[in-house]
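In response to the reviewer comment on reproducibility (Comment 2.3), we provide here a single inverse folding case reported in full, input and output, so that an independent group could reproduce the run without further information from us. The structure tokens appear first.
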């Protein structure tokens, strides 16, 4: 996490006008922390308190903007706080019995939403506004493809059963929840929705 934060700060200094880029570095870079903790067999008794502390730091930073590189000051978003809260909930609900579900939720959010935001802004395509949030064909397609790749990779790693139609349904759910991103609420709904659907998808 220190490396991720350092990269975001360096990015903000190098490209001060690219506010979203440094924020997305934190957004994407946070995702692999859960699989790493899973590999290292970090227990819930350690993982949950750490997640709570990080979420509190994110809340304090959102309130007083101590580290602008983590916050997108160009729009009103509670995404970083919601993201941390989602990770806390996933650890509490799934870490002991089904860590793959927690990883699925976080990785879809980290890579799917993160790349959708970056690529959607960089590549012009037909777009629309939903609840004052701009969405585009390229960004939405990126979210869908990345979600499918992440979920397929986890299925292969865990050697779970997979019904293609259920994979399609979960990806559609993730894309739908990502569309409703007012105030960054998708950082909470997407991880929870995907994690809760994981067991059903792989049953």
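Designed residues, in position order:
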């Amino acid at each position: 996490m220190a490396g991720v934060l350092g990269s975001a700060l360096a990015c903000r200094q190098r490209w001060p006008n690219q506010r979203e880029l440094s924020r997305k570095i934190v957004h994407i870079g946070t995702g692999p922390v859960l699989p790493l903790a899973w590999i290292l067999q970090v227990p819930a008794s350690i993982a949950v308190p750490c997640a709570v502390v990080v979420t509190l730091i994110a809340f304090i930073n959102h309130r007083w903007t101590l580290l602008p590189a983590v916050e997108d000051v160009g729009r009103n978003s509670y995404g970083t706080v919601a993201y941390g809260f989602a990770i806390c909930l996933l650890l509490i609900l799934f870490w002991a019995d089904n860590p793959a579900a927690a990883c699925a939720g976080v990785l879809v959010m980290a890579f799917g939403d993160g790349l959708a935001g970056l690529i959607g802004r960089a590549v012009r395509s037909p777009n629309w506004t939903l609840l004052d949030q701009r969405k585009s064909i390229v960004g939405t397609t990126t979210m869908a493809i990345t979600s499918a790749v992440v979920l397929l990779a986890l299925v292969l790693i865990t050697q779970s059963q997979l019904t293609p139609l259920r994979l399609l349904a979960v990806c559609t759910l993730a894309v739908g929840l990502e569309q409703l991103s007012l105030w960054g609420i998708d950082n909470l709904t997407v991880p929870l929705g995907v994690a809760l659907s994981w067991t059903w998808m792989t049953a």
